[in-house]
């Protein structure tokens, strides 16, 4: 738990700093975290499964890869900003991150005057280590072209300030008691003072959380419809408890109509199940839906996966007159595929009237499909990653469906056995890479070995996630899991770590486009 959370916080902060430049101005934090530190968790007996997963050799190797790639990120991604090519930035960042993982820390990213990005971090390193942190901070600042540090008159703390010759950017260092703080931006001294006030208030109101993160997605992603959020993680017995609250700027207007599920089609042995409702009004306004569908948008969606073989994953949503809708939507699917995936040929969508089914033909590995089943499941469109549609056998256990009907404000429910779902999602990722002609992940890569390591997969267990509507503008998420992430999220994490531009997200390019552009 300890290394995973701290490394995730570091990687998330690095990604955020790389992608949030250019957002609109404002002085409030865009993203902030607090981590209690690995040292304080060493005697904790909670989250046993995650602790075992973190000791797996492949996990240790991936965490070391994350640390190395974060340490060399300045040389890889911003070499033109480094004024001293002989400076050992990677060495100092590597050691600094090791200590950051162990110690209690606070940090936040915000925008200061003139929309300049600013970042500050405070670390409880102990008074004896403060001088080493000051030397490291000064070396990094000098390597990036800042002037010599100057003392700043203040009461009780040791403060240093270094400025860049051009523009208004500067960086500050402060030491007080057993804490050190570092900031970079237009007004780093004010930023450190604000961080100290925030940390003092948070320690006063601290709960049992191991990790807390707050953010303003509207400001980070420049979309005013997105919410502010608070996320916490804490060990709870053998598992983790993840909780989050999302506060939207306007009423969500979710229509929580009674659940309608294709109970004649969902069958055991289930390894994953998802049900979502309330989004019909929002889906109807989605440009993609308007391109595809001739009728009203469904208000519910469910998906399930079987544990027989990989790729047996299905979905369904209510759709009146499903057979006619399917007939009309097939040519629209082909048109959309031609526009968005021109390298899909010779794959094509084919409507089969005798079975009320549309399939994606001539694509290796799998046969994606949509199907109307008027006799077995009237009023639903059913689809899947691959045929056959297995709709025989025992129905799912009643306790699973009781999770839906027993919670009136439930918006989404997700349950999975994470190990088989991880395998499913990895194969879906391979299929998606194939149809998009993306370079496939190397079977010898560290992340591929990590996701296949039995020492990791045997620790994954169940993951249950609920999202509830707790107010007109508020959603609350609650998850109990072994490692904090679902199979889908683990695959996306692996993709991110393995990307060429990490800690930025790497946008993959089709191989055929690369070959065309190279000519």
Indicate the proportion of strand residues.
Answer: 25-35%
> For the residues shown, what is the average pLDDT?
86
Q: Write down how many β-strands occur, each being a DSSP E stretch of 2 or more residues.
A: 20
Gyration radius (Cα, Å) is 26 Å
Largest sheet: 20 strands, antiparallel
Binned, the helix content reads 25-40%
What's the short version?
By secondary structure, the chain is an alpha+beta fold. Helix content is 36%, strand content 26%.
Describe the model.
With 519 residues, this protein is an alpha+beta fold. It contains 18 helices and 20 strands. The chain has helices at residues 2-19, 38-41, 48-54, 57-71, 73-77, 89-102, 130-143, 188-204, 217-221, 280-284, 287-292, 322-340, 398-405, 418-435, 446-452, 454-457, 487-498, 511-518, and strands at 29-35, 105-111, 117-123, 150-151, 158-163, 170-176, 179-185, 211-216, 228-236, 239-247, 270-277, 300-306, 313-318, 348-352, 357-361, 369-373, 377-384, 410-417, 462-471, 474-481. It has a 20-stranded antiparallel beta sheet, sandwiched between helices. Strand 19 and strand 20 form a beta hairpin. It is elongated, with a radius of gyration of 26 Å. The protein starts with a helix and ends with a helix.
Q: Which characteristics define this entry?
A:
single chain, 20-stranded antiparallel beta sheet, 26% strand, alpha+beta, disordered N terminus, elongated, 519 residues, 20 strands
